[in-house]
Amino acid sequence: MFRFKFFVISFLIAGCCLNAQTTLWLDQLDLSVATQGNGKPGINTSVDGKKLTIAGKTFDRGFGTHAESSLLIRLDGKATKFSAWVGIDDEMKGHEPAVEFEIYGNNKKLWSSGIMHLSDKAKPVSVSLKGIKQLELVVADGRNGPYYDHADWVDARFETTGVSTLETFNPIASEPYILTPKPAAVPKINSAGVYGVRPGSPFLFRVAATGERPMTFLAKNLPKGLTIDSQTGIITGKIDTKGTYEVLLSAKNAKGSVSKKLRIESGDKIALTPTMGWNSWNCFGHEVSADKVKRAADALVKTGLVNHGWNYINVDDSWQYNRDGKDPSFKGQFRDEDGYILTNSKFLDMKNLGDYIHANGLKMGIYSSPGPWTCGGCAGSYGYEKQDAESYARWGVDYLKYDWCSYGGVIDGLPNNDLGKVPSLAFNGGGDLDKGVKPFKLMGDLLYGQPRDIVYNLCQYGMGDVWKWGDETHAQSWRTTNDITDTWASVKSIAFAQDKAAPYAKPGNRNDPDMLVVGVVGWGNPHQSKLKPDEQYLHISLWSIFSAPLLIGCDLEKLDDFTLSLLTNDEVIAVNQDALGKQGVCLDTVGELKIYAKDLEDGGKAVAFANFGREKVKISYKDFKTLGISGNQKVRDLWRQKDVAKINTSNQTLSLEIPAHGVAYYKFILSK
Ligand code: GAL
User: Fold this and answer.
1) Is the CA virtual torsion 443, 447, 448, 454 positive or negative?
2) What region does 39 belong to: left with phi over 0, alpha with psi -120 to 50, or beta?
3) Is 418 exposed, middle or buried (0-12, 13-18, 19+ CB in 10 A)?
4) CB 148 within 8 A of CB 90
5) Is the CB of 512 under 6 A from ligand 1?
6) Number of neighbours of residue 279 by Cβ within 10 angstroms
7) Which residues 6+ apart lie within 8 Å of 11 measured at CB?
8) Residue 419 has pLDDT above 60, yes or no
9) Is the pLDDT of residue 254 over 50?
10) pLDDT digits (tens, 9 = 90+) for 468-526
11) What sign results for the dihedral spanned by CA atoms 394, 395, 396, 398?
């Protein structure tokens, strides 16, 4: 009897479940492989880890994410239906998020929510998965930038054929691999071939050279007023007159010696090659301090980065007092009686910090806003521009990043107290343009009048086509887009926005696509960059070919071998620092492969084959004419520092195999 009962029960269980449909919740899958614009995938929580809430209604189950977001799921016939509700999470109240939820099956769009805003009621989704092998859940930005876009898939579930899970995956390889060869023991000089200085300004130039130490340095034909320290390779002094000076630098160690020309241009133009250095923002955010900055300067030297040309140490926001001042070290009087800015208690002595940085042959950068408040709520320069420019010069500042922040409120005539609350005003032309240029010109003229060279970087996210007028404000570089994050969507959208500004790039004028997001970044919440290794190769290669200012955004005390290899490839850096000063642009597109080319001073051409697609690209490339390349060419792989082909471009092809989200970065050199 007992046996019979057992048999019947087992039969019923097996029978009921064999072909039966069961519900599988989206939150039961491995969501950690999803890519998203910010934060971590929330399992049954919002992206901020809170209860999922859409338009006042809470939900127990779901996936909280942030645009741009993508989750790929392999179905292979195991699921028949997907249903959910979607919407923007209420935690973004006070902001203006906008997103579009999209569902793709076998790479074809099956459903879209249309653009959704904050407080829109959750929208229902129900799609049949018949014949769908691969499903993708996407949250795209709602066409106002991927900011504050906290998006929820709630009560999301699959009807399955009875499986207990479905496989989620990310098609981009995640194993780091190093291509940059280690520097040789023999000396090699890596400094750019040209350097600009204004007559009468203090001269500080550290010869960047790799090779075994000790090393001795020499500089032939230095103009009057300059001397080189033979032990450190640091050139100091002052040139009184305008002129072009052809100097021959040499470096010698036990293994050999080497020479390289340096053209010193004493005149009006500075920053003739893109600025290379470090900035505190992407790693420390508001938690920056003089001690951390000094340690970054030490690390720049200790890691050997300095031997590859990295030399600016830039303090971003939060060296000043802050109007909110939750952190007691931020609380204090903003300025002295004469209007000179006071530094917060994490930066006790700016002059001392400047001296410390300079003693290593490095340069110091600082940050402010033309508005009364910086973006982080610290004291800005509005109304005190003259005093600030003077303070910078007194402290030995070599670089200023000047960030729009609260200045939109000044244009709108808002009282000081309200300025921090309004979003920046975007100005596009006409009278607005003049208003937007004015504060930058004011500070630019003041910096230009100081007795030292201060490289001037405009940070207003590209408004009013800044590349067309930035030079008039005495600026050397200007941001072209909003802030970068360590996500593929961010790097990709910023990369696509560069070409329009390219004609305005030249020696002393650079389009700035924002800082590098490799290594340990996090804006105060440190984590390894979320970019996959191939995405990092693509990021560095494009910033190199764009002739972008290169500012490392990671914690230099936590550099791993892979990140260091990305930042110390002298052939990749040499393209960025090329004295001709052109900006590479996209000249050809093959599917999702974009091909960027840049003319170089020696007649060669740098070419980046950048694969923005999720599939590996394998092609025989032949359209060299489109890239402006002809004749017999030697092709050199810049990352591997190796010649890889010799081709007659009129009848031969170049075989390429480029990983998904990866790059092949080559130099073409005309040969006989
Ligand atoms: C942003 C700027 C960032 C950083 C930040 C500091 O506006 O784009 O790079 O400087 O302000 O608050």
Assistant:
1) negative
2) left
3) exposed
4) no
5) no
6) 27
7) none
8) no
9) yes
10) 999 999 999 999 999 999 999 999 999 999 999 999 999 999 999 999 999 999 888 89
11) negative
Common-topology check for domains 188-266 and 586-670:
yes
Query: Are 617 and 634 within 8 A, CB to CB?
Result: no
Question: Stretch 232-254: mean pLDDT, rounded?
Answer: 98
Q: How far apart, in whole angstroms, are the C-alpha atoms of residue 111 and residue 324? A: 45
Distance of CA 461 from the midpoint of ligand 1 (Å) = 10
Span 58-70, average pLDDT: 96
CA quadruple 250, 252, 255, 256: dihedral sign: positive
Q: Please, are residues 452 and 393 in contact by the beta-carbon 8 Å criterion?
A: yes
Give me ligand 1 centre to Cα 484, in Å: 10
Identify the pLDDT of residue 12. 45
Residue 136 bridge partners (DSSP): 72, 104
Whether residue 253 contacts residue 212, with contact meaning beta carbons closer than 8 Å, is answered with yes
Q: Which residues form the catalytic set? A: 403, 483
Strand pairing class (134-141; 69-74): antiparallel
How far apart CA 540 and CA 495 sit, in angstroms, is: 11
Q: Reduced to 3 states, what is the DSSP secondary structure of residue 503? A: helix
Question: Which pLDDT belongs to residue 1?
Answer: 44
- Tell me the average pLDDT across 362-384: 96
What is the CATH number that goes with domain 21-169?
Answer: 2.60.120.1060
Look at domain 316-474 and name its CATH class. alpha beta
Q: Quick check: CB of 482 below 6 Å from ligand 1?
A: no
Residue with CA at minimum distance from ligand 1 atom 3 = 483
What are the tens digits of pLDDT across the range 568-597? 999 999 999 999 999 999 999 999 999 999
Report the DSSP beta bridge partners of residue 665: 608
CA–CA gap between residue 504 and residue 257 (Å, rounded):
39
Return the half-sphere exposure (C-beta side, CA atoms, 13 A cut-off) of residue 635: 23
Does 317 sit in the ligand 1 pocket, CB within 6 Å? yes
CB 469 within 8 A of CB 439: no
Domain 586-670 class in CATH: mainly beta
Among 166, 140, 106, which Cα is nearest to 36's?
A: 140
- Which residue owns the Cα nearest ligand 1 atom 7? 375
The single-letter code of the amino acid at 56 is G
Domain boundaries, the chain: 21-169, 188-266, 316-474, 586-670
Q: At what angle do helices 533-545 and 488-496 cross, to 10 degrees?
A: 20
- CATH fold for domain 188-266: Immunoglobulin-like (2.60.40)
Please report, to the nearest 10 degrees, the dihedral formed by the alpha carbons of residues 485, 487, 491, 492 taken in order: -140
The Å distance, Cα 193 to ligand 1 centre, comes to 31
H/E element, 447: helix 430-448
Contact 503/465 with Cβ under 8 angstroms? no
Instruction: Print the SS3 string covering 233-251.
Output: CEEEEECCCCEEEEEEEEE
pLDDT at 418 over 80: no
- The answer on pLDDT for 425 being more than 60 is no
- Whether the CB-CB separation of 182 and 287 falls below 8 Å is answered with no
Tell the residue nearest (CA) to atom 6 of ligand 1. Answer: 317
Spatial distance between the Cα atoms of 476 and 473, rounded to a whole number of angstroms: 9
Ligand 1 atom nearest to CA at 515:
9
Running DSSP on this structure, what letter comes out for residue 73?
A: E
Distance 357 CA to ligand 1 centre (A): 23
